[in-house]
Amino acid sequence: MDKFFNADTKAKITDILRQMVNPVHVLLFTDAAGCDTCAETSQLLSEFAETNPKIQLSLLDIKADAAQAASYGIDRVPSFVLLDDKKTYRGVKFNGIPAGHEINSFISALIEMSGLDIKYPADVLARIQKIDKPVNIKVFVTLSCPHCPGAVQTAHRLAMLNPLVKAEMIEANTFQDLSMKYKVSGVPKIIINETKELLGNQPVDAFLKQIEAI
Description:
alpha/beta; eight-stranded mixed sheet; 214 residues
């Protein structure tokens, strides 16, 4: 398989990822029987792991490692989660390959999961910390969507800042059954706790207003 990164792109990503503070564990679940983008996702994440030794990539099988997959709520492939340096799951999940524009949301997740401060104003951080109920955020994206990474980054930041929040990127074309279920006709489409919806790259305040209304 051809590499995703040429020498110039790899050098740029390597430079950006120098911001990583602590190791981040990436657990990728695929299927030995194969899937449409399993091989490509494994290749992409492997190339990322080559850019910085703090990226610790583990390749797992959704059937052979079913219990582990279930512990992260993974029931389809390719999907992966990010764990912090203590191997704690902090609610950051990707369903589908983070290629195209979604490379940006993956890079942000790596850097912020590694311990780089998430710079929100004090009042926003206080609202995030006050979330006292389980929250699940699904962000549907396509790889050609330039506005999607911002929505994914916001959802993942909320998860990293409050243990009650879980957030996942869903690549709409890979998982068309979910796109149909949630009536995805435009992206980014954001579903919060199955009942609240947002469309577009909304600011964190819009996310919080929907969460606070649940």
